[in-house]
Amino acid sequence: MAPVRSSVDGSGPARRAGRAVGRALHLPITGTARGIRRATHAHGAGESGLGRLIELHAINSAGDVMITVALASTVFFSVPTDEARGRVALYLAITMAPFTLLAPVIGPLLDRLPHGRRAAMACAMLARALLAVTMSGAVATGGLELYPAALGVLVASKAYGVVRSAVVPRLLPPTFSLVKANSRVTLAGLLATGAGAPVAAGLHAIGPPWPLYGACAIFVWGTFAAFQLPHKVDDAKGERRARLSTHEPHSKRPGLRTVSRPVLCGLLANAAMRALSGFLIFFLAFLLREQPLAGQSAAVSLGIVGVSAGVGNAAGTAVGSWLRDRAPEAIIAAVLAVTLAVAVLAAVLFSGLLMAVLAGTAGFCQALAKLSLDAMIQRDVPEAVRTSAFARSETALQMAWVVGGGIGIVLPLNGVLGMAVAAAMVAAGTVMAFRGLLATPRPHRPGSSPHPRVA
């Protein structure tokens, strides 16, 4: 005779119902987590460690957007336009100006710590977690003590970016190109930013410090996640430091030629696009407060332009992953020419719609140009110095963004003038892009190949 089951042994109706409810409540979280893990670890990214870097970059982007929302509410949105302009100028003077001096040091300094990249990324995360707590007391008042902490956050964020650029080449799966890997990393960051922004806005509704508390928690998570990267991230065997020139300093004869002319021209073209990005962020933020899009409030206008830029960036990343390393010099020249045409059109026929179109175009073309530059560095720069070259190029691009942002904050709020300045920036980059295209050896030349390597 079979024994009668009771609820005492955990298999009764009440216990089974409780487990069913628990699974129903738990499934959205665990199911989403498993889906994200499958996506980030697909096609060998899990085995190589790239999947963990993709997840780390998503954590980084989510934390950064939390701090951005907290600072924007204090420095920009909470005061009239004139006062906000002064506050942002102060923010630029206290944070961006010192960073411009520090940025050239970050790359070479991290070059000297090739065996501590995981620790460097973890320290960048932990520093921002502590600084977020420090800023939480001053974010409501906008006191001067907010700005040194913001400088620290900016430096830590850029240091993470430089190290991350150096780490990606060491985590490539066998079937991955560098362009595809960077596309995945960038796209994960964009998705995390899009998901984190509304969460940060909800936390801000509770109180001004709450987005910073959220950022602290995220960056603490990132601190531990950085140490979960594979140990080969810290393996610098065979690496050498790259110089963005053709001669070693203090030498009367040519040294190791580490960067070809097409790569240098591609880097300068990308610097123009990054400067345009910084310029548009600051200039359009103030301009749209004074001259919002037709029938929209200033906040909605800023949201429309921001979404346009984000969608363009995501689309450019996706297209870059599809194109991979096909004719990167031609792609850079083409996207800068397109951006220049849209900028000139926006200056001649100035309107709110064209500003949104320019923001979307700039986002799309900047992403595509950066991935093409990555392909050129992977193709033309010797492997021994490739990791360092990525770190140095990222530092240069960050400095270009700072310069563009500075121009955007000091320029008078005249739409036509602003679009003309934007067109001038892109024109300088377009010239460099075409110089790089013309300097690329053609396959039909004797002794040349379509994919030259620098000796």
Give the end-to-end Cα distance, rounded to a whole number of Å.
85 Å
Record field, number of beta strands: 0
Largest sheet: none
User: Which radius of gyration do the C-alpha atoms yield?
Assistant: 24 Å
Following the backbone from N to C, one meets helices and strands in this order, namely: HHHHHHHHHHHHHH
Any low-confidence stretches, pLDDT <50, length ≥5?
Answer: 6-10, 244-257, 444-455
Number of helices: 14
Estimate what percentage of residues fall within beta strands: under 5%
Shape: globular
> Which secondary-structure class do the elements indicate?
mainly alpha
Helix coverage percent: over 70%
What features would you describe in this structure?
The structure is a single chain. The chain has helices at about 15-40, 45-50, 50-75, 80-110, 115-135, 145-165, 180-205, 210-225, 260-290, 300-325, 330-350, 350-380, 385-410, 415-440. The chain has 14 helices and no strands. Helix content is about 75%, strand content about 0%. By secondary structure, it is an all-alpha fold. About 50% of the residues are buried.
